[in-house]
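Notes from hallway chat w/ T.B., transcribed later so I don't forget. T.B. wanted the structure written out for a chain they're using in a teaching module, and asked if we could keep both sequence and structure tokens in one place. Agreed to drop them here.
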Amino acid sequence: QVQLVESGGGLVQAGGSLRLSCAASERTFINYAMGWFRQAPGKEREIAAAISRSGGSTYYADSVKGRFTISRDNAKNTVYLQMNSLNPEDTAVYYCAAKRFPSYSGIYYTRRDAYDYWGQGTQVTVSS
């Protein structure tokens, strides 16, 4: 069972930036497609960004496109979410997720039920 631990959340003013990190517990991280989801109170968990096993393909929700960047460092077993130009609508708990056995190295996943492992979440709060 792989463990995923998110960090980097906090309180930031509108227009500011944060970088979230998700560290995986084992080297098989290199074989996982990864995603970042977010969930605001009273709302469903939604995809924010996803990245393929290879790192060569990425996906961004329309709401974050142009502001967020997902990346991975396989040597560190870590995936990142760089968040710029934050606004109060970005306030949510952010979750890291891992998908085992992606169909091919360039595929990413946007469905919640596609993922096998989840982190505990990290709170991001953006003030006006």
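Follow-up for T.B.: The first strand starts at residue 4 and ends at 7. Might be a good example for the class.
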